[in-house]
Amino acid sequence: MLAVLDTSALLSGKRFPGPAVTVPAVVAEFREGGHSWRLLEYARSAGLTVRQPSESSLRRVRGAAERTGDLSHLSRADVEVLALALEVRGGKGPGEAGGEGEVVVFTDDYGIQNVASALGLAHRSVLQPGIRQQWRWFYWCTACGRRFDALHPECPVCGSPLKRVRAP
């Protein structure tokens, strides 16, 4: 099994089964020196590799995150982690063979877990309980009550703030 690690997985200091990989954007979140940096260096010495996902994989993840309503809440590193997992799995759908075999995304981020589920990627929590079901989000205007699938800086109709709401 190939473990694809996000920042929370690296910060946990845990060892993961099989080889582990992460993305440059996750590494960039660590500052040299201090405890967090030592955890990253420990993971590297234990064989952690760093790979950049392709632009086509990044586009697929952004599309899935837009459909679930999570895109506005995912960081660049989050999107890259999911894209790398999709890519090393071979870009296949759930249950299809291809890529480098079984891939598991290790993360405590519920948004990453939600999009991973939408993409058919296996995921496991590190320290927190994981999601129990996949959610879809939409944006609701707090004043006029209109519903939007995509996040806007403000309601395009009345200019009021939008609130992220789980779809029924």
Polypeptide structure, described:
The protein is α/β, with parallel strands linked by helices and 168 residues long. Helix content is 35%, strand content 17%. The protein has six helices and eight strands; from the N terminus they run βαβααβααβαββββ. The chain has helices at 7-12, 24-27, 34-45, 55-68, 76-88, 110-119; strands at 2-5, 20-22, 49-50, 103-106, 122-124, 137-141, 147-148, 162-166. It has a five-stranded parallel β-sheet. Strand 6 and strand 7 form a beta hairpin. Helix 4 crosses helix 5 (76-88) and helix 4 packs across helix 6. The longest helix has 14 residues, at 55-68. The protein is elongated and about 55 Å long. Mean pLDDT is 87; it is low at 92-98.
Number of strands: 8
| Residue runs with pLDDT of under 50 for 5 or more positions | 92-98
String of helices and strands: EHEHHEHHEHEEEE
Oligomer: single chain
